[in-house]
From TrEMBL:
Signal peptide: none
Chain ranges of the Acyl-CoA dehydrogenase/oxidase C-terminal domain: 219-368
Acyl-CoA dehydrogenase/oxidase N-terminal domain mapped to chain residues: 9-109
Protein name per the record: Acyl-CoA dehydrogenase
Domain of life of the source: Bacteria
Pfam families per record: Acyl-CoA_dh_1, Acyl-CoA_dh_M, Acyl-CoA_dh_N
Keywords: FAD, Flavoprotein, Oxidoreductase
Annotated CDD domains: ACAD
Entry keyword annotation includes Transmembrane helix: no
Cofactor(s) this protein requires: FAD
Residue ranges occupied by any Acyl-CoA oxidase/dehydrogenase middle domain in the UniProt entry: 114-207
Family of the protein in this entry: Belongs to the acyl-CoA dehydrogenase family.
Length: 381
């Protein structure tokens, strides 16, 4: 059942999250160094119990956490999300030994996780990845190749790595491995990106892995990746909605105070209508995100389409809203350190990572035509 309004308890929880973010997380975020893991911030997320909720909450609560944190502190939101993205495959597909070793540390904020899927030649086309897992005896492989655009790399403590165990098999020949950062042959380098959170490349030079490191089943790693993305794509939308709401709140306040042309900015019809459009799009995106998350929690088979729609609409909406907010604030929004200058840098990346907007449109169309074909077959005499 899609969620059109939050229960009072959930609304109160979101308000508490925003208060916690302002009091405990934002001060630590402001002390962090752009492009590097902020370990004190991750540890505080653990102390507040928010990282543990990554593994005990459903998709809707994950979305509410990400939206609430993003309205106040995008750095805290991103740190939380990356812990979830990197460790969810361990939670969902790991062996008891893997879960026992890593999940308490991730939930406590003492270990940093990362999700290593993308490559320089296989970003949007994840099934085309080429990181090779070459056999090295029964139940043993050596990883050779590179990963690129990996959030939290090269500073993470553990990586969920997707490698090709069967050549020329497309998505059917990929295996997910849990690879600690101290494995011999694993090195990395940071990449300077527009987004302020850490992103890097990983280099695998005959990195040893065994059957004990496999997440799920051999050659079934693509299912691990897609299952993780189906959960996190709506919550990327929630992150975007949080940023859009922060930009909208700032714009309503600014236009209500700002003197211009003998009145206030809000009195200009062109300004008021623009603000109304920002609010309209933000609320529409929020509802679609909540509906997709609820579908995931309910086990709806239509999750891939709903998740793609939620991420697509929310990230494109956030780009529009933040850009409009900058325009209505004028030059002050371009000054380094201004909230909107920060959001303007943050808002661009979500339209690309975890499946670019074009990929989401492809998923939506594929699911629509698959449903049409099924319906046509069922109705045939």
């Amino acid at each position: 059942m899609p969620v059109f309004a939050l229960e009072p308890e959930r609304a109160e929880w979101c308000a508490q999250l925003r208060t916690q973010a302002a009091r405990h997380l934002l001060p630590l975020a402001e002390k962090g160094e752009p492009g590097h893991v902020n370990r004190p911030l991750v540890a505080e997320l653990g102390r507040l119990g928010l990282l543990e909720r990554l593994f005990t909450s459903g998709a809707l609560d994950l979305c509410l956490m990400r939206e609430s944190l993003a309205r106040v502190c995008t750095e805290a939101e991103t740190a939380l999300a990356l812990q979830g993205l990197g460790a969810h495959p361990v939670h969902a597909h790991g062996t008891p030994a893997q879960r026992e070793r890593w999940l308490p540390r991730v939930a406590g904020g003492s270990a940093v996780a990362a999700f290593a899927l993308s490559e320089s030649g296989a970003g949007s086309d994840a099934a085309a990845l080429s990181l090779a897992a070459r056999p090295d005896g029964p139940g043993r492989w050596r990883l050779t190749g590179e990963k690129c655009w990996i959030s939290n790399a090269p500073e993470a403590d553990l990586y969920t790595v997707f490698a090709r165990t069967t050549p020329d098999a497309g998505s059917r020949g990929v295996t997910a491995f849990l690879v600690p950062s101290d494995r011999p042959g694993l090195t990395g380098s940071a990449l300077e990106m527009l987004s302020p959170h850490p992103i890097g490349a990983l280099h695998f030079d005959d990195v040893p892995v065994t059957a004990d490191d496999v997440l799920g089943e051999t050659d079934r790693g693509f299912r691990v990746a897609m299952g993780t993305l189906n959960l996190f794509r709506p919550s990327v939308g929630a992150f975007a909605v949080g940023m859009a709401q922060a930009a909208l709140d700032a714009t309503v306040g600014h236009t209500a105070r700002r003197d211009a042309f003998g009145g206030r900015l809000k009195d200009l019809q062109s300004v008021a209508h623009r603000v109304a459009e920002m609010a309209l799009r933000t609320e529409a995106a929020r509802l679609l995100v909540y509906a997709a998350a609820s579908a995931y929690d309910d086990g709806d088979p239509d999750v891939p389409r709903r998740a793609a729609m939620a991420k697509l609409l929310a990230t494109e909406t956030a780009q529009y809203v933040v850009d409009a907010a900058v325009q209505l604030h004028g030059a002050r929004a371009l000054r380094r350190g201004h909230l909107l200058e920060h959001l303007y840098r943050e808002v661009r990346a979500p339209r690309i990572y975890e499946g670019a907007s074009e990929v989401q449109r492809g998923i939506i169309a594929k699911e629509l035509y698959a449903a049409h074909a099924t319906t046509t077959e069922e109705s045939a005499p």
